[in-house]
C-alpha cells in the first residue's frame, strides 16, 4: 500500500492513496460515489479514471478491478469526507484501509456507531442489535491491536446530550478508564463483553418516554420514579437480547449506584470495579455535554466536582480521569 503526491502540475499538493480490491468492491458497481484515479506507470502520473457518479459499464468494471489488483487504483485524500460517509456504512473496511489516519478512523467510528446505537435504541430488538454487535466487534478488533487508540475517540465525543450521543461518549470514556484501571490482565473475550456493556449501559432509557428524557424543567415525582427504574428495565432488556454475562449486568445495574448507598435502583454500597468505572464515565460524560436542563461544564470543573465526591465515586478511578483532564493526556 502506498500514498503518492500528485505529479499533475495544476494539483501538486494533492495526496492519493492506493485502495484494495475489497474497498473497490464496496462501492456501487455502476456509479462510484467519488472520483477514482489510476497510476499511469510510464509517466508516473496520477490521472482521473472515473468521476464521481459517472457510469461504469461491465467491461469498465472488469478493467477497474484488474487495475486495482495491480495496485494502480487510488483515491484522493481531499475526498476523505465522502469516503468516510461511505465506509461508515461498512465499518469493517477501516481494517482494510491502511492509509486512514488514526483521527480519521476515530471520526468514522464516532459517526457510524452513534447512528447504529440510535437505530438500536429506537428499536431495541435482536435483529437490530445483531447489526450493532457486528460493528462493536469491528471496533474491538481495531482497538485490540493498540488499546491506546481509544484516546483518539475520547477527543471526538459529542458536545450535545442525546441518548445515542451519551451512550457513545460513555462507551469511549469507559473503555479508556478500563484500560487505565486494568492495564492488561484481560483477554479479548472480556474486552468484547466490556465494550458492549459500556456502550449499552443506558439502554433501559430507551423505554423512558422522550418527553421525560428531554424535559427542560425539573421532573415530577412520578417522572423521576420512571427514570429511576431504567437500570432494571435495561437489565431485563439485556437478558431478552441474550446478553447474560456479568459485565453487562454490572454496567446496566450499577452505573447510578454510589459508594455511600445514595444511588439507585438498589442503594448498593458494594459496587463491582466495572460498575464503578461505568458510574464515573456516565456521570462525567453527562456533565460535560449540553443537556436540556443544564449547560455543559468545562471538563476541569466536571472532574473536580467528581473528585470532591469521594464518598460517591471511586477516588482511584476519578484520579485517573483528573490527571488526564488537567494534563490534557488524551
UniProtKB/TrEMBL annotation:
It holds the Pfam family HD_5. InterPro entries: HD/PDEase_dom, HD_GYP_dom. Residues 121-330 form the HD-GYP domain. Transmembrane segments: none annotated. This is HD-GYP domain-containing protein (C-di-GMP phosphodiesterase class II). It comes from Desulfobaculum xiamenense. The lineage of its organism: Bacteria, Pseudomonadati, Thermodesulfobacteriota, Desulfovibrionia, Desulfovibrionales.
